[in-house]
C-alpha cells in the first residue's frame, strides 16, 4: 500500500501525470484554525511541545485541502534547544537563542544521544500522526541543516547576512567546525528517531545555504548534508530524503549527487525551465512557486502554477512553493493553486 503513495512514487523517480503537492509551512498563521489552536497552546514553542495540539495543527491543512504530504509541526531550532541552548520567540520578531562563541560553549552542549528526552514530545507527535493521517498522505519529518542551525546558534537570532556565523567560520574555524560537527551528529540521531516513530520521508532545510560562497558552499552546506544523509541511510536505507539548499542558484545542478538525496527542493530564484534541464535529470525536484502568489492569487497564480507543472512534467516532480507560505496569504488562493495543479 505504502509504495502507492504519490509522494513516495515521485521520490522513487516516477514521472506522474499530476504531480503530488504539499506546501512549506502549510500548518501556519494564514489559517484561522491554526491561530485558534496556537492561542489554546499559549505560544509557538508550547504548541511544538504539546503533542496533541501539534498533531491537530499538522492535520488541519490536510483536512482543509487534502495535500499529498503532511510535514511534522515542529521547528528547526528545537535541536539547539535540546543540545542545551536557551530558546524563546519574540512576538513579531522571531527566534532568540543563547549564543555560542567559543570552544567552552561547544563543549557544554549535550551529546547526540542525550537530546532524545527533550525531544520525546516531537517523537510522540510523529507517532500520533502516523496513526491519524489518511492512508494516502505521506508523513514528512525534518531538521535544519548544520549551517543554517549554526547561524542561529552563533548569532542568537535570525540575521539578514549570517555575518556572525561567517565571522566565527573565518576567524575561529576550529570552534566553528566543532559546532558544525555537534549539530550534524545530533541531527542524524534526531532524524533517525523521527523515522523510527513513523516519519516516511525526511527533509533537511538549509535555508541560508545561499550565503556560502565558493568552497564554503561545498564544505558547509553540501558536505554536512551528505554526512546526515549517510547517517540516516545507514540505519534507514529505504527512507527517501529531500534536501533544500535554499539560494543555491546554479549550484542546484549536481546537488542530488553531492548530497545523496532523492529529491532537491528549489527556491523561486531559479526558473522551472532551468531546473528541468539542469537538476531534474538527476532525480526528483520540489518547488518552486513564489509564495507571494498565495497573497495575490488570481490569473497570475494560475498561469505560474501551470507553467511550473508543465516545465517539470517530463520527470519526477513534487509541487510546492519556493519557500514557506506567509501569514498574510489567503486560504482561498491555496485552493486555487491546488485546483490549477490537479485539474489543469
Ligand atoms: O513547514 C512546516 O509547516 C513545518 C513546520 C516548520 C516550522 N518551521 C514551523 C514554524 C518548519 C519545517 C520550520 C522550519 C524553519 N524554522 C526554518 C527553515 C525553513 C525556512 O522557513 O527557511 C527556519 C529558518 C526556522 C526558524 C524559525 N521558526 C523562524 C526564523 C521563525 C520566525 C519567522 C516566522 O515565520 O514567524 C520561526 C517560527 C515558526 N516556525 C512558525 C511556524 C509555523 C511561526 C510561529 C508562529 O505561529 O508564530
Descriptive report:
The chain is of the alpha/beta class. The protein has one domain (2-343): TIM Barrel (Alpha-Beta Barrel). Helices cover 50% and strands 12% of the residues. It is built from 16 helices and nine strands. Strands 1-4-5-6-7-8-9 form a seven-stranded parallel beta sheet. The protein starts with 5 loop residues before the first helix and ends with a helix. The relative contact order is 0.14. The model has no long low-confidence stretch (mean pLDDT 97). Bound molecules: coproporphyrinogen III (CP3). Coproporphyrinogen III is lined by residues 24-29, 38, 44, 71, 73-77, 94-95, 142, 144, 158, 205, 207, 324. Coproporphyrinogen III (CP3) binds next to strand 3 and strand 4.
Notable characteristics:
single chain; 344 residues; TIM Barrel; 16 helices; globular; binds coproporphyrinogen III
Average predicted local confidence, pLDDT: 97
Query: DSSP helix count?
Result: 16
How much β-strand is present in the residues? Answer: 5-15%
Q: How many domains make up the 3D coordinates?
A: 1
What is the class in the CATH system? Alpha Beta
Name the quaternary structure.
single chain
Please specify the SSE layout and strand pairing.
Blueprint: H1 6-11, H2 32-41, H3 44-49, H4 51-65, E1 69-71, H5 78-83, E2 87-90, E3 94-97, H6 103-107, H7 116-132, E4 138-144, H8 146-155, H9 163-171, H10 173-197, E5 201-206, H11 215-235, E6 241-245, H12 255-259, E7 263-265, H13 272-278, E8 284-289, H14 293-296, H15 298-311, E9 317-321, H16 331-343
Parallel strand pairs: 1-4, 4-5, 5-6, 6-7, 7-8, 8-9
Antiparallel strand pairs: 2-3
The structure holds coproporphyrinogen III.
Amino acid at each position: 500500500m505504502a509504495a502507492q503513495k504519490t509522494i513516495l512514487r515521485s521520490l522513487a523517480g516516477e514521472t506522474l501525470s499530476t504531480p503530488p503537492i504539499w506546501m512549506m509551512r502549510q500548518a501556519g498563521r494564514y489559517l484561522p484554525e491554526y491561530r485558534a489552536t496556537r492561542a489554546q497552546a499559549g505560544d509557538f514553542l508550547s504548541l511544538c511541545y504539546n503533542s496533541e495540539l501539534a498533531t491537530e495543527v499538522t492535520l488541519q491543512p490536510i483536512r482543509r485541502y487534502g495535500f499529498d504530504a503532511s510535514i511534522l509541526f515542529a521547528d528547526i531550532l528545537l535541536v539547539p534547544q535540546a543540545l542545551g541552548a536557551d530558546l524563546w520567540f519574540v512576538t513579531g520578531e522571531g527566534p532568540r537563542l543563547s549564543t555560542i562563541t567559543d570552544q567552552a560553549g561547544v563543549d557544554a552542549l549535550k551529546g547526540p544521544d542525550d537530546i532524545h528526552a527533550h525531544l520525546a514530545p516531537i517523537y510522540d507527535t510523529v507517532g500520533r500522526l502516523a496513526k491519524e493521517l489518511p492512508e494516502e498522505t505521506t508523513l514528512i519529518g525534518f531538521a535544519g541543516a548544520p549551517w543554517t542551525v549554526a547561524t542561529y546558534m552563533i548569532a542568537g537570532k535570525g540575521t539578514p547576512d549570517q555575518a556572525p556565523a561567517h565571522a566565527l567560520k573565518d576567524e575561529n574555524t576550529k570552534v566553528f567546525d566543532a559546532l558544525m560537527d555537534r549539530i550534524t551528529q545530533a541531527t542524524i540521531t534526531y532524524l533517525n528517531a523521527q523515522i523510527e516513530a513513523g516519519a516516511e520521508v525526511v527533509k533537511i532545510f538549509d535555508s541560508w545555504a545561499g550565503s556560502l560562497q565558493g568552497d564554503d558552499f561545498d564544505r558547509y552546506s553540501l558536505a554536512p548534508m551528505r554526512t546526515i544523509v549517510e547517517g540516516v541511510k545507514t540505519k534507514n536505507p529505504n527512507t527517501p530524503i529531500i534536501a533544500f539548499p535554499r539560494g543555491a542558484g546554479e549550484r542546484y545542478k549536481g546537488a542530488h549527487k553531492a548530497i545523496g538525496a532523492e529529491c532537491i527542493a528549489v527556491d523561486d530564484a531559479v526558473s522551472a525551465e532551468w531546473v528541468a534541464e539542469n537538476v531534474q535529470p538527476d532525480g526528483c525536484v520540489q518547488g518552486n512557486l513564489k509564495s507571494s502568489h498565495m497573497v495575490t492569487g488570481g490569473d497570475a497564480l494560475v498561469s505560474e502554477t501551470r507553467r511550473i507543472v508543465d516545465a517539470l512534467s517530463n520527470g519526477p516532480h513534487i509541487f510546492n512553493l519556493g519557500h514557506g507560505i506567509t501569514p498574510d496569504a489567503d486560504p482561498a488562493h491555496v485552493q486555487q493553486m491546488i485546483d490549477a495543479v490537479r485539474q489543469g
